[in-house]
Amino acid sequence: MEEEYVEIGKIDIKKYSKLCENQIITNEVIITYKQIEHINEERPGVFDKYKDKLEDVIKTPDYIIEDPKHKETGLVIKKYEKDVVVVLKLNTSEEDKKNSIITIWEIKEKRLQRYLLTHKTIYKKE
Q: Pick from 117, 115, 99: which is nearest to 107 by CA?
């Protein structure tokens, strides 16, 4: 059977663990073809611009912020020429198997500062 996803890389579970009440089961991160299609429809060009940087974003984020709308999900932010946000759903149950990127978007510094004021920051690069 053909894979339905692309492997992105591995996370440092300790860095992400404060997003979850339960233990994160795996350090593997994927993105499904369905999510890539969603990103391309909603934000044309963003996936192609950052696809080669996704592993860097999840391994060495500048910020990890709790997603207040979704349990065990974080906004993983990395500063490039623009700030990029990767929404990462973490796996704490056997049914999901892997951590998964839900979506990606770019933000301006003003929005980043608003996120930092209004959302719980669980990790900040020193």
A: 115
Instruction: State if pTM tops 0.90.
Output: yes
Q: How many CA atoms lie within 13 A of 31 on its CB side?
A: 23
Altogether, the residues listed in the chain come to a count of: 126
What's the domain range around 95?
Answer: 5-124
pLDDT mean values, one per 10 residues, the chain (126 residues) = 84 93 92 96 96 96 93 94 90 80 94 95 94
Q: How many domains does the chain have?
A: 1
